[in-house]
Fold:
Amino acid sequence: MVITIDGPAGAGKSSVARGLAKRLGFRFLDTGAMYRTVAYAAMKRGIRWDDDAALAELARSIDIDVSEEQVLMDGEDVSSAIRTMEVTSVIHYVADHPGIRELLVELQRRCASGGDFVTEGRDQGTVAFPDAACKIFLTASPAERARRRQKDLEARGEEMAFEEVLKRQEERDERDRNRPVGSLVAAKDASLVSTDHHSMEQVIDELESLVKKQLASKS
Ligand code: C5P
Structure:
């Protein structure tokens, strides 16, 4: 069974999806890590961002293994390397590429097939798992999301002024919403949940009861 959590950057998806998976005894799949790994590989190999064919070839040729503990690229642990600002600033070249999206959606379906998963991303309920048992769209106000993002960066030793975090977040949201394939949009049958003024534990509590209620009504 698959439960999807989509939403913009900084809405708290990762922590919430991880926590919800733990409560339900499900596994957790971070699909953003897949896009990050391809962007990181392209950066490392010096592939030009306007070379669509080379980017697609690269995505096909590398082995991406996303587990709850770590992210492996051809066996190398890239868990931290893929989360730098540098990778985040070029990720749209990969996320906007329809061929790469198709490939990664296929990988996501393979990863989740036959298991119980909470998957997290932008297009999980709309494109990757349109028949998911339960769909959640997580939101939060831009200022709250930027504050969280700034804290995350700080924890990793990367300093950035709040205004700059907010500006970059707006740019990323705009791109995520407007890409022709796999854009950031709530599925029609998704439950919208705001994380503003709530602790992660409170949001996980809310989602756990929401999911249990929805699953009970379907059985
Ligand atoms: O969730 P995270 O911030 O790690 O995702 C990085 C980027 O990957 C997002 O900004 C988005 O552009 C892209 N992404 C996507 N589809 C997904 C997951 C992430 O386009 N399912």
Summary: The first strand starts at residue 2 and ends at 6. The chain has a mean pLDDT of 94. Residues 9, 31-32, 35-36, 91, 95, 121-123, 172, 176, 182 surround cytidine-5'-monophosphate (CB under 6 Å). The chain has one domain: 2-210.
